[in-house]
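Bumping my old thread because nobody answered last time. Still need a sequence for this structure:
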Protein backbone atom coordinates (compact mmCIF):
# COMPACT_ATOMS: atom_id res chain seq x y z
CA UNK A 1 0.00 0.00 0.00
CA UNK A 2 1.12 3.27 0.74
CA UNK A 3 3.76 4.71 2.73
CA UNK A 4 1.41 4.95 5.62
CA UNK A 5 1.08 1.81 7.88
CA UNK A 6 -2.32 0.14 7.75
CA UNK A 7 -4.29 -0.57 10.92
CA UNK A 8 -4.07 -3.87 12.68
CA UNK A 9 -6.09 -6.61 11.00
CA UNK A 10 -7.28 -9.89 12.41
CA UNK A 11 -4.98 -12.56 11.02
CA UNK A 12 -5.10 -16.33 11.27
CA UNK A 13 -2.60 -18.13 13.48
CA UNK A 14 0.46 -18.75 11.33
CA UNK A 15 3.83 -19.86 12.59
CA UNK A 16 6.19 -16.90 12.54
CA UNK A 17 9.47 -17.55 10.77
CA UNK A 18 12.87 -17.60 12.44
CA UNK A 19 13.67 -14.02 11.43
CA UNK A 20 13.39 -11.81 14.55
CA UNK A 21 10.44 -9.43 14.53
CA UNK A 22 12.83 -6.50 15.06
CA UNK A 23 14.42 -7.22 11.68
CA UNK A 24 11.00 -7.34 10.01
CA UNK A 25 10.05 -4.08 11.76
CA UNK A 26 13.11 -2.31 10.34
CA UNK A 27 12.43 -3.84 6.92
CA UNK A 28 8.92 -2.37 7.01
CA UNK A 29 10.24 1.09 7.80
CA UNK A 30 12.72 0.86 4.94
CA UNK A 31 10.14 -0.48 2.46
CA UNK A 32 7.46 2.11 3.19
CA UNK A 33 9.96 4.93 3.69
CA UNK A 34 11.58 4.20 0.32
CA UNK A 35 8.24 4.46 -1.50
CA UNK A 36 8.77 8.21 -1.95
CA UNK A 37 12.19 7.64 -3.49
CA UNK A 38 10.74 5.05 -5.89
CA UNK A 39 7.96 7.42 -6.95
CA UNK A 40 10.52 10.12 -7.68
CA UNK A 41 12.47 7.65 -9.82
CA UNK A 42 9.24 6.64 -11.57
CA UNK A 43 8.61 10.25 -12.59
CA UNK A 44 11.68 9.99 -14.79
CA UNK A 45 9.57 8.50 -17.57
CA UNK A 46 6.04 8.01 -16.20
CA UNK A 47 3.21 10.42 -15.51
CA UNK A 48 1.83 10.50 -11.93
CA UNK A 49 -1.34 8.58 -12.80
CA UNK A 50 0.70 5.96 -14.64
CA UNK A 51 2.73 5.50 -11.47
CA UNK A 52 -0.30 5.10 -9.20
CA UNK A 53 -1.99 2.77 -11.70
CA UNK A 54 1.04 0.52 -12.20
CA UNK A 55 1.66 0.48 -8.46
CA UNK A 56 -1.88 -0.66 -7.72
CA UNK A 57 -1.96 -3.26 -10.51
CA UNK A 58 1.37 -4.74 -9.38
CA UNK A 59 0.33 -4.67 -5.75
CA UNK A 60 -3.02 -6.38 -6.25
CA UNK A 61 -1.37 -9.06 -8.39
CA UNK A 62 1.08 -9.80 -5.58
CA UNK A 63 -1.69 -9.92 -2.98
CA UNK A 64 -3.87 -12.22 -5.10
CA UNK A 65 -0.95 -14.64 -5.38
CA UNK A 66 -0.34 -14.48 -1.63
CA UNK A 67 -4.04 -14.90 -0.92
CA UNK A 68 -4.10 -18.04 -3.05
CA UNK A 69 -0.96 -19.46 -1.42
CA UNK A 70 -2.44 -18.94 2.06
CA UNK A 71 -5.81 -20.36 0.93
CA UNK A 72 -7.60 -17.17 1.85
CA UNK A 73 -10.85 -15.92 0.38
CA UNK A 74 -12.24 -12.57 -0.65
CA UNK A 75 -15.08 -11.05 1.40
CA UNK A 76 -18.66 -11.54 0.27
CA UNK A 77 -21.76 -9.42 0.25
CA UNK A 78 -22.78 -6.36 -1.75
CA UNK A 79 -22.73 -4.13 1.33
CA UNK A 80 -19.13 -5.06 2.08
CA UNK A 81 -17.99 -4.44 -1.49
CA UNK A 82 -19.84 -1.10 -1.57
CA UNK A 83 -17.86 0.02 1.49
CA UNK A 84 -14.67 -1.36 -0.07
CA UNK A 85 -15.20 0.90 -3.07
CA UNK A 86 -15.04 3.84 -0.65
CA UNK A 87 -11.95 2.62 1.19
CA UNK A 88 -10.28 1.61 -2.07
CA UNK A 89 -10.58 5.24 -3.16
CA UNK A 90 -9.38 6.86 0.07
CA UNK A 91 -6.66 4.29 0.82
CA UNK A 92 -5.43 3.63 -2.70
CA UNK A 93 -6.63 5.58 -5.72
CA UNK A 94 -6.57 9.09 -4.23
CA UNK A 95 -3.46 9.08 -1.99
CA UNK A 96 -1.28 7.07 -4.39
CA UNK A 97 -2.13 9.49 -7.19
CA UNK A 98 -1.65 12.61 -5.06
CA UNK A 99 1.70 11.53 -3.66
CA UNK A 100 3.01 10.79 -7.16
CA UNK A 101 1.70 14.12 -8.46
CA UNK A 102 3.09 16.03 -5.47
CA UNK A 103 6.63 14.85 -6.20
CA UNK A 104 6.56 16.78 -9.46
CA UNK A 105 6.59 19.88 -7.23
CA UNK A 106 8.32 18.89 -3.98
CA UNK A 107 11.15 16.58 -2.97
CA UNK A 108 10.60 12.96 -1.98
CA UNK A 109 11.87 13.87 1.50
CA UNK A 110 9.20 16.52 1.93
CA UNK A 111 6.51 14.18 0.58
CA UNK A 112 7.46 11.67 3.28
CA UNK A 113 7.12 14.37 5.91
CA UNK A 114 3.63 15.20 4.60
CA UNK A 115 2.68 11.56 5.06
CA UNK A 116 3.42 11.90 8.79
CA UNK A 117 0.27 14.02 9.21
CA UNK A 118 -1.93 10.92 8.84
CA UNK A 119 -2.33 10.40 12.63
CA UNK A 120 -3.52 14.01 13.02
CA UNK A 121 -6.19 13.51 10.36
CA UNK A 122 -7.18 10.16 11.85
CA UNK A 123 -7.97 11.80 15.18
CA UNK A 124 -10.18 14.45 13.58
CA UNK A 125 -12.07 11.99 11.37
CA UNK A 126 -12.52 9.63 14.32
CA UNK A 127 -14.27 12.39 16.23
CA UNK A 128 -16.58 13.00 13.27
CA UNK A 129 -17.36 9.38 12.30
CA UNK A 130 -17.05 7.47 15.58
CA UNK A 131 -19.60 8.87 18.07
CA UNK A 132 -18.09 7.00 21.03
CA UNK A 133 -14.62 8.39 20.41
CA UNK A 134 -13.28 10.74 23.08
CA UNK A 135 -10.26 12.98 22.76
CA UNK A 136 -8.07 13.44 25.89
CA UNK A 137 -6.58 16.85 26.50
CA UNK A 138 -3.05 15.75 25.63
CA UNK A 139 -4.22 14.57 22.19
CA UNK A 140 -6.00 17.87 21.57
CA UNK A 141 -2.74 19.64 22.33
CA UNK A 142 -0.86 17.19 20.07
CA UNK A 143 -3.22 17.87 17.13
CA UNK A 144 -2.84 21.64 17.55
CA UNK A 145 0.93 21.27 17.78
CA UNK A 146 0.91 19.09 14.66
CA UNK A 147 -0.86 21.74 12.65
CA UNK A 148 1.59 24.32 13.98
CA UNK A 149 4.37 22.07 12.68
CA UNK A 150 2.73 22.06 9.24
CA UNK A 151 2.73 25.86 9.24
CA UNK A 152 6.42 25.90 10.15
CA UNK A 153 7.13 23.61 7.18
CA UNK A 154 5.15 25.83 4.80
CA UNK A 155 6.75 29.08 6.06
CA UNK A 156 3.82 31.34 5.11
CA UNK A 157 5.81 34.32 6.37
CA UNK A 158 8.36 33.84 3.59
CA UNK A 159 7.84 34.85 -0.03
CA UNK A 160 10.90 33.03 -1.41
CA UNK A 161 12.57 29.72 -0.65
CA UNK A 162 9.54 28.03 0.89
CA UNK A 163 8.10 24.69 -0.32
CA UNK A 164 5.66 24.70 -3.20
CA UNK A 165 2.30 25.09 -1.39
CA UNK A 166 0.34 23.13 -3.99
CA UNK A 167 2.80 20.24 -3.98
CA UNK A 168 3.01 20.02 -0.19
CA UNK A 169 -0.75 20.54 0.01
CA UNK A 170 -1.20 17.40 -2.12
CA UNK A 171 0.82 15.40 0.42
CA UNK A 172 -1.36 16.74 3.24
CA UNK A 173 -4.56 15.78 1.41
CA UNK A 174 -3.09 12.33 0.70
CA UNK A 175 -2.19 11.88 4.37
CA UNK A 176 -5.66 13.04 5.40
CA UNK A 177 -7.13 10.57 2.91
CA UNK A 178 -5.41 7.72 4.77
CA UNK A 179 -6.85 9.02 8.04
CA UNK A 180 -10.37 9.15 6.61
CA UNK A 181 -10.06 5.76 4.95
CA UNK A 182 -8.89 3.87 8.04
CA UNK A 183 -11.54 5.57 10.19
CA UNK A 184 -14.14 4.47 7.64
CA UNK A 185 -12.78 0.92 7.82
CA UNK A 186 -13.09 0.93 11.60
CA UNK A 187 -16.70 2.06 11.49
CA UNK A 188 -18.11 0.12 8.56
CA UNK A 189 -15.85 -2.86 7.80
CA UNK A 190 -14.35 -4.07 11.05
CA UNK A 191 -17.05 -6.71 11.61
CA UNK A 192 -16.89 -7.94 8.02
CA UNK A 193 -13.17 -8.73 8.10
CA UNK A 194 -12.60 -12.50 7.60
CA UNK A 195 -8.93 -12.08 8.50
CA UNK A 196 -5.62 -12.55 6.74
CA UNK A 197 -5.06 -10.79 3.44
CA UNK A 198 -8.75 -10.83 2.50
CA UNK A 199 -9.56 -7.17 3.15
CA UNK A 200 -6.29 -5.69 1.84
CA UNK A 201 -6.63 -7.70 -1.37
CA UNK A 202 -10.28 -6.76 -1.88
CA UNK A 203 -9.54 -3.13 -1.11
CA UNK A 204 -6.77 -3.01 -3.68
CA UNK A 205 -9.02 -4.77 -6.20
CA UNK A 206 -11.55 -1.95 -5.94
CA UNK A 207 -8.74 0.60 -6.30
CA UNK A 208 -7.52 -1.24 -9.42
CA UNK A 209 -11.00 -1.08 -10.95
CA UNK A 210 -11.16 2.64 -10.22
CA UNK A 211 -7.71 3.24 -11.71
CA UNK A 212 -8.76 1.59 -14.97
CA UNK A 213 -11.48 4.23 -15.31
CA UNK A 214 -9.16 7.04 -14.19
CA UNK A 215 -6.45 6.06 -16.67
CA UNK A 216 -8.88 5.77 -19.59
CA UNK A 217 -10.26 9.25 -18.87
CA UNK A 218 -6.75 10.67 -18.35
CA UNK A 219 -5.53 9.19 -21.62
CA UNK A 220 -8.56 10.46 -23.51
CA UNK A 221 -7.66 13.95 -22.32
CA UNK A 222 -3.93 13.51 -22.99
CA UNK A 223 -3.85 11.75 -26.36
CA UNK A 224 -1.90 14.61 -27.93
CA UNK A 225 1.04 13.81 -25.63
CA UNK A 226 0.60 10.06 -25.04
CA UNK A 227 0.05 7.65 -27.92
CA UNK A 228 -1.18 5.01 -25.43
CA UNK A 229 -1.91 4.88 -21.68
CA UNK A 230 1.45 3.15 -21.16
CA UNK A 231 3.51 5.50 -23.35
CA UNK A 232 6.56 7.29 -21.97
CA UNK A 233 5.95 10.91 -20.99
CA UNK A 234 7.19 13.38 -23.62
CA UNK A 235 9.41 15.26 -21.15
CA UNK A 236 11.05 12.08 -19.82
CA UNK A 237 14.38 12.66 -18.09
CA UNK A 238 15.41 9.06 -17.34
CA UNK A 239 18.30 7.67 -19.37
CA UNK A 240 16.25 4.50 -19.89
CA UNK A 241 12.47 4.15 -19.50
CA UNK A 242 13.02 0.69 -18.00
CA UNK A 243 14.34 1.86 -14.63
CA UNK A 244 11.31 4.00 -13.69
CA UNK A 245 8.98 1.11 -14.57
CA UNK A 246 11.04 -1.32 -12.48
CA UNK A 247 11.01 1.16 -9.57
CA UNK A 248 7.21 1.37 -9.61
CA UNK A 249 6.84 -2.41 -9.99
CA UNK A 250 9.08 -2.80 -6.95
CA UNK A 251 6.93 -0.27 -5.11
CA UNK A 252 3.77 -2.24 -5.89
CA UNK A 253 4.99 -5.79 -5.31
CA UNK A 254 7.27 -5.26 -2.32
CA UNK A 255 5.71 -2.12 -0.84
CA UNK A 256 2.25 -3.69 -0.82
CA UNK A 257 2.48 -7.47 -1.05
CA UNK A 258 5.57 -8.27 1.02
CA UNK A 259 5.01 -5.38 3.42
CA UNK A 260 1.59 -6.67 4.51
CA UNK A 261 3.05 -10.09 5.29
CA UNK A 262 5.87 -8.50 7.31
CA UNK A 263 3.44 -6.32 9.23
CA UNK A 264 1.28 -9.27 10.20
CA UNK A 265 4.34 -11.11 11.53
CA UNK A 266 5.41 -8.08 13.58
CA UNK A 267 1.92 -7.71 15.06
CA UNK A 268 1.79 -11.41 15.98
CA UNK A 269 5.22 -11.31 17.61
CA UNK A 270 5.27 -7.90 19.30
CA UNK A 271 1.63 -6.82 19.48
CA UNK A 272 -0.40 -4.11 17.71
CA UNK A 273 0.98 -1.14 19.65
CA UNK A 274 4.56 -1.86 18.61
CA UNK A 275 3.47 -2.86 15.10
CA UNK A 276 1.84 0.48 14.33
CA UNK A 277 4.79 2.60 15.55
CA UNK A 278 6.52 1.90 12.24
CA UNK A 279 4.53 4.90 10.98
CA UNK A 280 6.90 7.22 12.84
CA UNK A 281 10.00 5.92 11.06
CA UNK A 282 8.64 6.31 7.51
CA UNK A 283 9.36 10.06 7.13
CA UNK A 284 12.80 9.58 8.71
CA UNK A 285 13.67 6.99 6.06
CA UNK A 286 12.25 9.12 3.25
CA UNK A 287 14.34 12.11 4.32
CA UNK A 288 17.56 10.10 4.65
CA UNK A 289 17.09 8.43 1.25
CA UNK A 290 16.12 11.67 -0.48
CA UNK A 291 19.12 13.55 0.89
CA UNK A 292 21.70 10.79 0.35
CA UNK A 293 20.56 9.26 -2.95
CA UNK A 294 18.80 12.13 -4.73
CA UNK A 295 20.86 15.05 -3.39
CA UNK A 296 17.72 16.67 -1.99
CA UNK A 297 17.96 19.25 0.76
CA UNK A 298 15.65 20.56 3.45
CA UNK A 299 15.86 23.98 5.09
CA UNK A 300 15.79 24.20 8.88
CA UNK A 301 12.06 25.14 9.03
CA UNK A 302 11.17 21.87 7.24
CA UNK A 303 13.31 19.87 9.66
CA UNK A 304 11.92 21.72 12.69
CA UNK A 305 8.34 21.37 11.46
CA UNK A 306 8.86 17.67 10.73
CA UNK A 307 10.13 17.14 14.29
CA UNK A 308 7.00 18.84 15.68
CA UNK A 309 4.68 16.77 13.48
CA UNK A 310 6.41 13.51 14.39
CA UNK A 311 6.36 14.32 18.10
CA UNK A 312 2.63 15.07 17.82
CA UNK A 313 2.03 11.77 16.03
CA UNK A 314 3.88 9.88 18.78
CA UNK A 315 1.74 11.52 21.48
CA UNK A 316 -1.44 10.74 19.55
CA UNK A 317 -0.39 7.10 19.22
CA UNK A 318 0.29 6.65 22.92
CA UNK A 319 -2.25 4.41 24.71
CA UNK A 320 -4.62 5.94 27.19
CA UNK A 321 -3.53 6.01 30.77
CA UNK A 322 -5.39 3.56 32.93
CA UNK A 323 -6.40 4.66 36.40
CA UNK A 324 -5.17 2.37 39.20
CA UNK A 325 -7.78 0.01 40.59
CA UNK A 326 -9.22 1.00 43.98
CA UNK A 327 -7.89 -0.99 46.93
CA UNK A 328 -9.90 -4.06 47.83
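Sorry it took so long. Here it is:
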Amino acid sequence: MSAAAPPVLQVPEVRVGRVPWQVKFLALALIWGSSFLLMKVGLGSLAPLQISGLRIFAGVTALLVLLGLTRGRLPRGRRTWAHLMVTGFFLGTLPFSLFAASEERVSSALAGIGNATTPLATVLFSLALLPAERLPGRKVAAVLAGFAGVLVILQPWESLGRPDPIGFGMTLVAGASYGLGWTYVKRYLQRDNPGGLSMPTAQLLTAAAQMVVVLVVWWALSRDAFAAPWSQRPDATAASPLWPVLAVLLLGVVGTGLAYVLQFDVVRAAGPTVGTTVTYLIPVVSVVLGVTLLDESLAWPQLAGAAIVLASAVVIGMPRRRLPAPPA
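The two ends are 49 Å apart (CA to CA). Let me know if any region looks off to you.
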